[in-house]
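Predict the structure of SWIM zinc finger.
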Amino acid sequence: MVAMTHSYRYLRPSAADASGGAVGLATSGGTTSRGPLPHPRFFSGVLTRPEAAARGLLAVAAVARTRYFRPQLAALRDPVVTCDGQRLRFESFSACGGVHARLDVLPGALDGEVFDRGTTNVDVNDPLREALARVRGGDPLHLSVGADELTVTTTDGAVLEKKVPLPERWLRGFAELQVISVPFDLRAELPAAEAVRLLRSLPAGSGVLWMVPAGRTLRRSARPAPGAVALAGARRLEVLTPLLRFARALRVYGPPVSAASLPVASAWELELPGMRLVLTLSPEVTRGFSGEGAVLDALVADQVEADAELVGALMDFEPAVETGELARLSGLPLPRVKAALGQLGTAGRVGYDVAEAAYFHRELPYDAAGAERLNPRLRGARSLLAEGVVRLAEAPDAAAGDDAARTATVAMPDRAHRVRLTADGTALGCTCPWWSRYRGTRGKCKHALAAELAARPGAPARPGPND
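Done. Here is the predicted structure for SWIM zinc finger.
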């Protein structure tokens, strides 16, 4: 995986005062409601639940510096914060790309002034982590996200700069996550005491467990069942442990599954006083979100780039993005709005909140440099189409199955693969090893994507296999 070098540039390091009564988070570049700014200032005020907030910030920072698969020292990647005028959302991805953490500091835990809305990185350094770990008691904690430029000048005018390799899988993970999370439903809600008991009883292994709702708790199972939630690598939930004494409830989300399901992603929301911390786990410890392929359907849709440009212009860091309202304002049908959101997610411009079942607007301060470059399967599909190796059958193929209206053959150097398509050109399956192994759970293979592109109205005509 290619790694880009990203520079965090801060006017000064983030710091807490000696008494621990104030925390100043330095910001590094970002997009605001007023446009791009090098050091945006979003909020200054009081966190009314200081100890829980400090532990939540530490959890997000801990995920950013952790590899859960093949653990090793990882380059520090500073968390992202989004201010929407009502709340602060702190986000990070693990270094291995398989865990996403988000701390939402909600209106009830904030008391202060909002200066702007937008997204930026915040510096979380070792001295700041040590200071946050010392926060105790019920005294309010003053927090500033960004600072008045008059107060941050240094005697030598120095600018703090940190350069870290930023793997593309980190950016792709943000994109995949917002598509993967949309089908999630609430599967279980545990009261605080039961949540503590469950999390402390989980095994430390890295295998996949299936958690089945049972009254007010979850029981472990070796096999999936309707209503169950997959938990891959229970140790990835250990970051919640320091927050358990503040917990009010634990909610668990996942997609629909059956007795034949393969492992799937899951989300674990710890409700805190005035806050919530959500961990989303990939289907297996060895899998990062970047390879799940969930965004590929949106990226091959007709007119998706133009639609994304239009939809993106209508968003303004709202706490919740209403897809129906976007459809009304843009004049686009709802499926095209959702496809556009998938495209915007590829650049980190939207996220999905399972707790509120709604998208939210954010702008990651990185240049994603185009959806296609970040998705090699899509690049491969376009190459296959350009090479003229995709052949569409004009008549239904009885051997393809009752649900397939037509087939496509993709001639590869080693063998030809056959793709089953519906009448509207949606791929149902492929004979390649990728599809056989994952059964579509990690997105479509390049052969299926190429067949869909070939079946699109207006695609260059190619002769069928009987021509």
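The chain has four domains: 3-90+103-165, 178-291, 296-353, 376-455.
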